[in-house]
């Protein structure tokens, strides 16, 4: 079978995540599909919080959850003219695998330019897998205060949960095997938009 050029890409000089040689990849979301998924999530957030939009806040989980949260906030601004505050959350110290690789953790710092107390906070991340990252994000957020509610918005849910965690808003559900990797690429972090699975 002839390989496409996308099947043999490596990391480029900018360090963008590329598909290694010898891997097989399958597109989950194109740029347009990614945009549609975020618009749908944005509409669902508005519909489910229609009576309390003034208490709504978005918090992106570093790294790719942050630009996704900003895009959702921009969609909400365009749809409703509402400015929803956006923060970023560093979950490094709350991970249950901290220190397993023997390396010092790299702290990037959380930035929440608002008080979470009493707010409905929507945590935003790119991929939901075992649920451990989402649990760490909730732990980190609760150290900042006591929200009225915490919701979870995910671009791609790939299954294989190890904790009883379920997203409230999902862009796309994708059945995967544990041998596959889901790679989310965003213009803000990788220079392009799209989601692929990679299987070695």
Which architecture name of the domain at 32-93 and 115-176 does CATH use?
A: 3-Layer(aba) Sandwich
Outline the low-pLDDT stretches. Answer: 1-22
- Beginning-to-end CA distance, first to last residue: 16 Å
Outline the biggest β-sheet: 5 strands, parallel
Could you please say which CATH topology of the domain at 32-93 and 115-176 applies here?
A: Rossmann fold
Description of the molecule:
By secondary structure, the chain is α/β, with parallel strands linked by helices. It has a domain of 124 residues: 3-Layer(aba) Sandwich (Rossmann fold). The chain is 24% helix and 26% strand. It is built from four helices and eight strands; from the N terminus they run βαβαββαβββαβ. The strands form two sheets. A five-stranded parallel β-sheet has the order 3-2-4-5-6, with helices on both faces. Strands 1-8-7 form a three-stranded antiparallel β-sheet. α2 links the parallel β2 and β3. α1 packs across α2. The longest helix is centred in the N-terminal third of the chain and has 18 residues. The radius of gyration is 17 Å and the shape is globular. The N terminus is likely disordered.
Any descriptors?
200 residues; alpha/beta; Rossmann fold; five-stranded parallel beta sheet; three-stranded antiparallel beta sheet; 4 helices; 24% helix
